[in-house]
Inverse folding.
């Protein structure tokens, strides 16, 4: 696609091409991503509407890009923003959230939706599990991709801290009260929490080194330049 605005839609004839001008009107207002919202969705509740409702609520809460209908394929994208979105796996369903992470402005408009006349839907409740797993990826990339130590280190400090507290408690029982703690499961738990905490912190440090190497070797900045103003032509 070589246009300034890219519009996608399903091939099952449930989307209405007559809604395209609505999307373009929002693009002209200055938005970068315009998503369709199938208010009167013509699908069965259990195998389509219910999974979609669950997914939309999860995605909106986690990404803070609140849309009523992430699954609607009728969308308009400003090409200059879409070029900055890197897709792999099944992350296409999160394009509005990924575009927002690189500075894109996202909105939605109500669109028509026709009953299915041809083919068979491949979506259902089983895909909700995959959505959740992909959503964790999007959340991590958007929040901690440039500071992985913050997530791994926090979990490591919490784990090690709890382990140390348990160890101090057991030491008190052993030294002050003279109790036998060698066969207590709590001792094993304390040691395990400390070891896991150290491993998580180490994992975070290794992730920091990998991320820094990636950005520096690729010359990849952690920001996106939309427009250059008053720059020297040379």
């Amino acid at each position: 696609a070589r246009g300034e605005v890219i519009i996608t839609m399903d091939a099952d004839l449930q989307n209405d091409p007559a809604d395209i001008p609505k999307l373009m009107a929002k693009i002209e207002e200055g938005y970068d991503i315009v998503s369709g919202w199938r208010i009167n969705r013509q699908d069965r509740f259990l195998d389509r509407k219910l999974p979609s409702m669950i997914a939309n609520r999860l995605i909106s809460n986690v990404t803070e890009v609140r849309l009523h209908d992430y699954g609607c394929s009728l969308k308009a994208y400003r090409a200059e923003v879409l070029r900055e979105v890197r897709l792999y796996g099944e992350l296409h369903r999160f394009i509005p959230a990924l575009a927002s992470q690189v500075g894109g402005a996202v909105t939605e408009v109500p669109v028509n939706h026709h009953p299915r006349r041809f083919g068979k839907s491949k979506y259902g409740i089983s895909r909700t599990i995959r959505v959740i797993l992909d959503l964790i990826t999007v959340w991590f990339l958007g929040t901690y991709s440039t500071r992985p130590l913050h997530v791994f280190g926090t979990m490591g400090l919490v784990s090690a801290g709890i382990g140390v507290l348990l160890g101090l408690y057991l030491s008190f029982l052993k030294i002050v009260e003279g109790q036998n703690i060698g066969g207590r499961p709590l001792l094993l738990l304390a040691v395990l929490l400390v070891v896991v905490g150290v491993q998580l912190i180490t994992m975070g440090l290794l992730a920091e080194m990998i991320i820094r190497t990636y950005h520096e070797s690729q010359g990849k900045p952690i920001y996106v330049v939309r427009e250059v103003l008053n720059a020297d032509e040379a």
User: Anything to note?
Assistant: The domain at 5-144 is CATH 3.90.550.10 (Spore Coat Polysaccharide Biosynthesis Protein SpsA; Chain A). The chain has seven helices and four strands. The mean pLDDT is 84.
